[in-house]
Write a structure and sequence with these properties.
Layout (H helix, E strand, L loop, with lengths): L7 H9 L5 E5 L11 H18 L7 E5 L5 H18 L13 H10 L1 H7 L1 H4 L15 H9 L2 E5 L9 H5 L5 E4 L2 E5 L9 H5 L7 E5 L14 E4 L2 E4 L2 H6 L2
Parallel strand pairs: 1-2
Antiparallel strand pairs: 3-6, 4-5, 7-8
Helix pairs in contact: 1-4
The structure holds iron/sulfur cluster (2 copies).
């Protein structure tokens, strides 16, 4: 697989499944066979991924990207031996300084769920093509990534405002909104990738989708309280069941 196809989600999955280290090997910069030069994208993405691992308490040295052409068998062996030695030194994942960082697997799972959001938020930086390889080292800072996690955006549909026009449900790229005709729409927070499409799509006069930053998302409206009963030009919500659950 071309390094340009390697996604942060693949790397995080490997760690979640118990890998002690991940190495990405690709063609040398400037020697890509394609105009896309995906190895630059991989380099950028792996630097971001290292910061994400660090944020969750994983030593970023457990992830490495190296340039090894198909003709460089000796170099491949040297790099792999060196990386193996490094991992022996670090010990199993969760060892040494990584201890006391809580459930690493759960933490990595949480990061993995946010990969589409992180790529969206960082799309301008991810598109950068820097002149020198070492310039990528400082592209992402620890503070920047901590801030990113502090300010993760969530979306919530206000049941008092939703008119079940169904626009948001049709536009959601991950089928993450439950709804239907005369049904108050509800975002499935597990599926939502926080793209903001529903926020943009909900008609301004209704304005039912809320953007939430740094606050918990209200619990979803129970199924039995989602039907909208319309009477003439006005709509009356059947919300008895929901009201019972209100604090
Ligand atoms: S933010 Fe995006 S992914 Fe989430 S529910 Fe809205 S449209 Fe779907
Ligand atoms: S676009 Fe707005 S009003 Fe229409 S279903 Fe979605 S949240 Fe409700």
């Amino acid at each position: 697989m071309c390094t340009g196809r390697v996604d942060m989600a693949f790397v995080l999955r490997a760690f979640r499944k118990g890998a002690d280290g991940v190495i990405v090997g690709g063609c040398w910069l400037g020697e890509c066979h394609y105009v896309t030069e995906g190895n630059y994208d991989a380099l950028n993405l792996m630097h971001l991924c290292k910061r994400l691992l660090e944020h969750r308490g994983v030593n970023p040295e457990r992830l490495r990207i190296e340039w090894i052409s198909a003709a460089e068998g000796n170099r491949f062996a040297e790099v792999m031996n060196d990386f193996t030695e490094k991992l022996r030194e670090l010990g199993p994942l969760g060892n040494g300084a990584e201890e006391g960082n809580g459930d690493l697997t759960a933490g990595l799972e949480e990061v993995a769920k946010l990969v589409p959001y992180i790529k969206l938020i960082k799309k301008d930086k991810l598109a950068l093509r820097l002149d020198r390889e070492e310039d990528y080292d400082d592209l992402y800072t620890r503070e920047e990534i901590d801030g990113l996690f502090r300010e993760v955006v969530s979306y919530h549909i206000d049941p008092e405002k939703c008119q079940a026009c169904m626009i948001c449900g049709k536009r959601c790229p991950v089928d993450g909104i439950a709804g239907g005709k005369n049904r108050i729409h509800v975002i499935d927070q597990e599926k939502c990738i926080r793209c903001g499409t529903c926020f943009e799509a909900c008609p301004g006069r209704i304005d039912a989708v809320r953007k939430i930053i740094g606050e918990p998302v209200p619990p979803p409206l129970p199924e039995e309280g989602r039907t909208i009963v319309r009477k003439g030009a006005h709509s009356v919500r059947r919300r008895a069941a929901w009201r019972q659950t209100d604090p």
